[in-house]
Design a protein that fits this description.
Structural class: alpha/beta
Helix content: 10-25%
Number of helices: 8
Shape: globular
CATH topology of the largest domain: Cytidine Deaminase, domain 2
Number of domains: 2
CATH class of the largest domain: Alpha Beta
CATH architecture of the largest domain: 3-Layer(aba) Sandwich
Distance between the termini: 20 Å
Radius of gyration: 20 Å
Order of helices and strands: EEEEEHEHEHEHHEEHEHEHEE
Mean pLDDT: 89
Strand order of the largest sheet: 1-6-7-4-5-8
CATH superfamily of the largest domain: Cytidine Deaminase, domain 2
Strand content: 25-35%
């Protein structure tokens, strides 16, 4: 991964709102009676986002319609469509009314057009498949075991990896909640964050899908030329295998999650040489996977 890749040109149309305000009835049991009260609730938006490469639709993901340029670039990098951010020449985001997208009334959508290098596009065409992404799933549409794309090379541990210890991880998590602006209003929204090797929080990206949030973070780092810097990812989710795979593919050396990992997530971290912390809730955390020593 070339951390000094130039930022692709971006043209973004008026975005769909990331939050929805809906009228609801709140029911409360009071003795033998039920009291109802009308109010407005704030809910997370979840819209279909079509990722289109050089005019060819590749994937439709359900995502929060914010930071979609970062999302598209991060998805392309973490899924191996692009080797480097410099292979993306431009990104254009366009909102689509439900009728234009062929969707039910009220279900508006977003189309993200990416212009990519010929080499990357030819590789994409060779392995193109129909992919329908859902909020809780990162590998929908895979047709064979090989399609899981689990065979990633093991990366040497960087010299600084020992600094990502429990106090550092918990210090980073302590800074996270105040910066989850969408989740504070609506709940049900994951965050992916980037912290330096000393635990200082630098970036926070939010989405209804944990893997979407991570792709947004990866795209943000790639556009800023920061993927090669010492640091680690924080996730407000479990440590599932696709999150480990995405980190490993772009050279991220460590990840910490607020919930437990899956067994496959731990195994993927072991195979890739990624440091994996889980159940990070002060004052404790669990180290599930770590390289034996720097450079091993």
């Amino acid at each position: 991964m070339n951390a000094s890749a130039s930022t692709p040109a971006v043209s973004e149309a008026d975005a769909l709102p990331a939050l929805a305000h809906l009228p609801v009835q709140v029911a409360t049991v009071e003795g033998a009676a039920v009291r109802q009260q009308a109010r407005q609730d704030v809910l997370a938006a979840e819209v279909p986002v079509s990722l289109v490469f050089n005019g060819i639709a590749h994937a439709v993901m359900m995502a929060t319609p914010r930071d979609l340029e970062d999302f598209a670039l991060g998805f392309a990098l973490s899924e191996g469509i692009l080797d480097d951010a410099a292979q993306c020449y431009g990104i254009e985001v366009r909102s689509l009314a439900a009728a234009e997208a062929g969707l039910p009334p009220g279900v508006d959508a977003v189309e993200v057009q990416l212009e990519v290098a010929t080499r990357a596009f030819e590789r994409l065409k060779d392995r193109r498949r129909s992919l329908a992404g859902r909020t809780g799933c990162g590998v929908c549409g895979v047709e064979s075991f090989a399609g899981l794309d689990l065979d990633l090379p093991r990366r040497p541990a960087p010299a600084w990896i020992g600094r990502v210890d429990l106090p550092t991880v918990l210090h980073a998590f302590a800074q996270l909640a105040p910066r989850q602006a969408l989740n504070a209003e609506a709940g049900a929204i994951h965050a992916a964050a980037w912290a330096s090797a000393d635990g200082a929080l630098a970036e926070v990206l939010e989405d209804v899908g944990r893997h979407n949030a991570l792709d947004k973070l990866i795209g943000r780092l790639a556009r800023a030329g920061r993927l090669g810097e010492p640091g680690f990812v924080l996730m407000t989710s479990r440590g599932s295998h696709e999150l480990v795979r995405k980190c490993a593919r772009v050279g991220i050396a460590a990840m910490a999650t607020i919930s437990a990992p899956t067994a496959m997530g731990v195994r993927m971290a072991e195979l890739c040489g990624l440091t994996l912390w889980g159940l990070c809730r002060a004052p404790r955390g669990v180290l599930y996977a770590a390289p034996a020593s720097p450079g091993s």
